[in-house]
């Protein structure tokens, strides 16, 4: 599935797929991509306090918008699944949990749908039946937007979502009770403001139909960036 999804994508904010290596004796298949020496977005931002957080997030939004335009749901978006290239541009990666929307209509349920880390998962991903959804239907562009809100939180706070709850087994109940990450009072980066917090709150709305599209999130990030220049 990852090979199928990834092979369809070509965008400056998506990590390119160079090829495939098959090891029949081990029964394994490896997907080959360019080496990204600057590591993932989370590590990069921690090591580069001078980096423009909004610029990086706008790049992630553009990559995700492109992925969605190709009819693909990422399914496992978090800062560790965004790499940074030699030009300092973010590149989405790890499409192992991705589905194209035609495939979503066919799939009933598989355990792989719940492999994504629960700290980034929308409430409908955690308990689809509560939303009258099949597990496959809970994986949507809207659930990606919820996760992208968590990526914005990561970049500005320097912490994973719900960092104050070390045991992840308690996260699903927390989220399904309507709780979200705490407001950023002591953020790791300058530039965070009330408008961004309002955007995060919209991304994290409990009703997936009420969340903004990734296009709207990109526009909002660009507006905040223009205000801070």
Automatic annotation (TrEMBL):
Residues 1-221 form the Protein kinase domain. SMART domains: S_TKc. InterPro entries: Kinase-like_dom_sf (IPR011009), Prot_kinase_dom (IPR000719), Ser-Thr/Tyr_kinase_cat_dom (IPR001245), Ser/Thr_kinase_AS (IPR008271), Ser/Thr_Kinases-Pseudokinases (IPR051681). SUPFAM superfamilies: Protein kinase-like (PK-like). Keywords: Kinase, Transferase. PANTHER family: PROTEIN KINASE DOMAIN-CONTAINING PROTEIN, SERINE/THREONINE-PROTEIN KINASE TNNI3K-RELATED. This is Kinase-like protein. It comes from Calocera viscosa (strain TUFC12733).
């Amino acid at each position: 599935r990852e090979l199928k999804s990834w092979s369809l994508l070509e965008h400056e904010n998506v990590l390119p797929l160079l090829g495939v290596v098959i090891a029949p004796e081990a029964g394994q298949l490896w997907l080959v991509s360019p080496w990204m020496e600057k590591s993932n977005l989370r590590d990069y931002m921690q090591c580069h306090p001078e980096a423009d957080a909004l610029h990086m997030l706008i790049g992630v939004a553009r990559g995700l918008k492109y992925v969605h335009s190709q009819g693909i749901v990422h399914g496992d978006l978090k800062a560790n699944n965004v790499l940074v290239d030699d030009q300092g541009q973010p590149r989405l990666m790890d499409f192992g949990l991705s589905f194209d929307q035609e495939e979503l209509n066919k799939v009933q349920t598989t355990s792989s749908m719940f492999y994504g880390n629960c700290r980034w998962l929308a409430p409908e991903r955690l308990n689809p039946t509560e939303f009258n959804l099949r597990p496959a239907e809970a994986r949507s562009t809207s659930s990606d937007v919820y996760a992208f809100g968590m990526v914005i939180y990561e970049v500005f706070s320097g912490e994973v979502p719900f960092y104050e709850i070390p045991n992840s087994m308690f996260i699903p109940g927390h989220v399904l009770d309507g709780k979200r990450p705490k407001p950023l009072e002591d953020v790791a980066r300058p530039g965070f403001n009330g408008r961004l917090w309002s955007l995060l709150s919209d991304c994290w709305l409990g009703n997936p139909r009420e969340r903004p599209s990734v296009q709207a999130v990109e526009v909002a990030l660009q507006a905040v960036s223009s205000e801070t220049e």
